[in-house]
User: Fold this.
Amino acid sequence: MFRGGRESSFSRGGEYSLGRKLWQIHWLFVLLVCVTASIGIAMLYSAANGNFDPWASRQTIRLGIGLLVMVVVAVIDIRLWFKYAYVFYFFGLALLAAVEISGFIGMGAQRWINIGFANVQPSEVMKIALVLSLARYFHGRTVEEVVNPFYLVPPLAMVFVPVAMVLRQPDLGTALILVMASGAIFFLSGVRLWKFAVVIVGGLAAIPVAWQFLFDYQKKRVLFFLNPENDPLGAGYHIIQSKIALGSGGLFGKGFLQGTQAHLNFLPEKQTDFIFTMLAEEFGLVGGLVLIGLYLLLLIYGYAIALRSRSQFGRLLGMGITTIFFLYIFINIAMVMGLIPVVGAPLPLISYGGTAMVTLLFGFGLLMGVYVHRDVTIGRRGGGEEM
Amino acid sequence: MTMHRDQDRQKLFNRRMAMLAGGKGLLLSALVGRMYFLQVIEADKYRTLADENRINLKLLPPPRGYIVDRRGIPIAVNRQNYRALVVREEAGDVEETLDRLGTVVHVGDSEKKRVLREVRRKRGFVPVTVRENLNWEEVARIEVNSPDLPGISIDEGQSRYYPYPHSTAHILGYVAAVSEKELTGDPLLELPGFRIGKAGVEKVYDLALRGTGGNSQVEVNAFGRVIRELSRTEGQPGVELGLTIDMELQQRITRRLGEDSASVVVMDVHTGDVLAMVSTPSFDPNNFNKGLSVDEWRALTSNPKAPLSNKSVAGQYAPGSTFKPVVALAALEKGVITPQTTVYCSGKTHLGDATFHCWKRYGHGKMDLQNAIAQSCDVYFYEIAKRTGIDAIASMAERLGIGHRLGIDIPGERSGLAPTREWKQATLGVPWQMGETLIAGIGQGYVLSTPLQLAVMTSRLVNGGYAVTPHLTRQLVTADEVKPRGKPQFERIGVSANHLEIVRKAMDAVVNGPRGTARGAAIHEAGLEMGGKSGTAQVRRITKAEREQGVRKNEDLPWLERDHALFIAFAPVDKPRYAVAVVVEHGGGGSSVAAPIAKDVLEAVQKMDVRAKPTLEADASPADWTRGSES
Assistant:
């Protein structure tokens, strides 16, 4: 199923023309991305009661921009990303700090900064930056070094600083994704399993302490997740209405544009976080499974691309991006089905939102870059070390 | 070296990646499992919940049935009612919105408080009534200013309206908002602004007049706004209720009584149809629908003439001399007298140490039954009451309709009293005194009757001895059907026709005889002549000292101590069809005050052409009635 059999047209050690790189892009993957995003656009059309405005039209433009970004990122030499990984990371930290400061000045919690033509969410940038820099760090560590706890201090710090800043915003969902994606990279790099066990046990023990630092609305969300029927018109409302919408969709759904829960506004935020609910209401279990199937295909391609890479950097980067993608899918769908608390994570490629779309396609660009440069090997410190 | 290390690392990576993929696969399976659970296993439950979410059942209040008079003239109708409503969700700050509305139309402080209280209790999208019965100008002013009045809307409903409020108030009663304890589970009652009958015919026939509510299934959005109608079941409008009341007569009597505290009941002696039932002073039931102010309520309840009370059924009066035909009939039936029996009246009679006076100070002389009734001799009736005994008198009174509720179809009827020995022992704990029998013989003492009972008594005396009972509606209304009454069948009261004829003739003499007490009120038109009996019920006790100095005249007494003036009458005198009872509280003499009213009424009712469309005037305000009664 994977085009692994075809020999890369990169001749070893050589530099390749733009045309050849473009040819190397995994266009089937791009097609899958487009199909999935089209489902999203259709749902946004439905969310606006059968109108392209205000969401579907803009989402289409963003998809176009995102695809362009993806291709551009894909053809940039992977060694360049390796080289500037830390720079990128500190750039992300600086953006986070900028948000913190402007939020402080603007007297309110802000998650984005304006860069003239668009708003950028630094926490989104940070997801990519963190994966890049962790991939670069572990690329340079030998198996022996990874086992040594001393070598784990720098990457842990690399994770801790942005997570702390994101938590301050406060953005629990993004913080969790950062931690879990980083955890996956640590795991794939060979960090011993018992260390994860220690961290998990420690984390569970820390829950009561962390509870103190949660904001009231976050506490409420967790509490009402545990028993949503307690407050059917308050914080538990979203989950209850979402479950009703999903369940009433049944096997085949109520039909396109026919979702009563969504169209009569019982379903909150149907164009963003709860768009999966709307899909499952209008297209039923079958529609939900089709989307999950598409996601599964994309995930499998992500895995295959990571496996096929000849550099640890490429492998870790590919898996990091794929994991973030997976986490979004899982958190969003589990959330709307009442399996986990409402944390506010968009459904990738489907939910309305420019930053998320562009960031994700930027990430897919990197994944594509790993594929395009699958036979490029990178030295421990980034030199064009040949095999 | 590097390559070897990298191969180790890749093997580790691959192993770990397989584990990670397995983990992710499990998580995705969990999602699919959850979806299957929600969308297949529990789908029905959530489908129901989704429908409950979106489908609201809206009740459609049925139009309340009209009430029409004998000739079909509407006397209780529904009028368009424009209401101003406020919706909290749209208004934002309700108090501020109400203040702004107050600059456009009048909004009272008490209304404002009520609205703010209701708004707090109800959900944000439920409209709350601010003002009712807005006129066109007010509606227009609100509409023009609507951009400044967020959340204020005009709603068109129906409200009960009585075109002849003062002349019909006691019969029709009124409608008002449903109180907490009146909720029966009928969802109609829980509709905001729904009104039910609280008194009179409106109350007794409330269920029939109310009709049954229809409903409309509507799809609503999360904010409760109606998106579209899914289905609609029309309700059943309330039935049109036809009364036996003749509005022309009713209004004429109301005007005739003017500001007196009085009551008149006119009925058909054979059928029991009540043609008029007037109690004055009256009130405007339209105000009850709107809700009364504290001042208005106080004015109604503190008025000594009791405008809220329906004196026709709830006023209990000593019948006075109008009771004499009952006593006469009881005596005849018991056989203690014959029409020829005479009693000598010297102006007083004695029983033990007590002296009983006739109204005529120096006496009537020798009296037989006809003269005693015609001239209302008290001494004659003291004597025959003594011979008859109280229990036989009471039994006759009961047979003629006094002393128990007659079951007329409006609430508030009182029973009156036909006292017996047993009754006195049971309620007062002391034995009956013979003197009390004498007093009862002239309709004083414990005997009590309502104007309605007097009218029924008169009917039964002259209709050939049938136990006619009164009613106000032309239809029989039962739980499941409404049908015309048809020809009523009444039982006989078991009194000899001969005796009834003797009494009727005596009552003829009261009006048409040369010495009759009411000869001044006689109808002289051939065929329309009436018979009757006057009564003047003493309200106060006349002391011995006063009697020696000369009994004070009514005009010299304070209003509340004056005698009640009563008159019962029937016509035509030879072939009676109509009976009338008149009671004027503290009005003075029965023959001078009440008899002329009875005359006017009987003249009017006999001349009335029931097929003609009557000319009715708008009900006058109480101030206008004075002029009406003087003319």
Observations:
- The longest strand of chain B covers residues 74-86.
- Chain B touches chain A at residues 2-3, 5-6, 8-10, 12-14, 16-17, 19-21, 24, 27-28, 30-32, 34-36, 38-40, 42-43, 45-47, 49-51, 53-54, 219-223, 227 (CB under 8 Å).
- Residues 58-242 of chain B form a domain with the Penicillin-binding protein 2a (Domain 2) fold (CATH 3.90.1310.10).
- Residues 621-631 of chain B have pLDDT under 50 and may be disordered.
